[in-house]
Amino acid sequence: MKTLKTFVLALFLSLIPIVTFAQDDQAFLIHQDQVKPGMVETYEAISKEFNEECKKLDFKAAWSVAQMVNGKYLSITPIKNLGDIDNMSMAELSEKMGKEKFKSYFDRYNKCYDKHGSYVTILSNDLSYMPDGMSTTQEGMNYRKWHIISVTPENRAKMAENMKVVKDLFVSKKSKMHYRVYTNGFGQIGDSFIVVVSAKNELDMAQLSEENRKLLGPESKAKFDAVFNLASDYEEVTGGMRPDLSYSNK
Q1: Backbone dihedral region for residue 143 (phi beyond 0: left; psi -120 to 50: alpha; all else: beta)
Q2: Considering the entire predicted model, what is its pTM?
Q3: Which end of the chain is more exposed for a tag (fewer CB within 10 A), N or C?
């Protein structure tokens, strides 16, 4: 048993460099709740109530919330490294609130979903196209479209190369469609590149996409094909940021 534990620890430590990211990149801890369709209103009410309680108790923390149309709610917290996760304990909050009351919130939350979990994702500065400066939020642009491009390990490096070619095309054309690319950090099964585009609303997204298609022209097809020909799966999901469910007190 001791030998097995030693092996597991060594394997874990060997994986740490994989989640080391470039100096200009930003990592995020994501907590994802798959909320049942009939429990959305309840879930949101609990979240707002919990946030108000955190404010009253001066809980020092911050997270943004995104909602997807498929029922996923993402609580997003920026981190500098994996060590930051150790400092995100809610033990102090539990003591201030009272353990029974604190527990009651999560007992109520647990009735809203059958599965949830946390993982780390990395915002790639090299693959993202944000000519006005890297930012995950843009004022008045809370609508989101996520392009989730899955890839096998053997094609991951080539996929990154092809996505860089697409970015170079956007740069050369001075596209008005800005986007961010997130890659696996820690805790996910499988490799993926997630392209996130912001807009004012669904109509604005459609207009932006059409203008961009015309701007990039026919030459873009081969470059996009090179990306999608390497994809093992693709999913497009819409949704948006939820400032009313987010929390900040730092």
Answers
A1: beta
A2: 0.88
A3: N
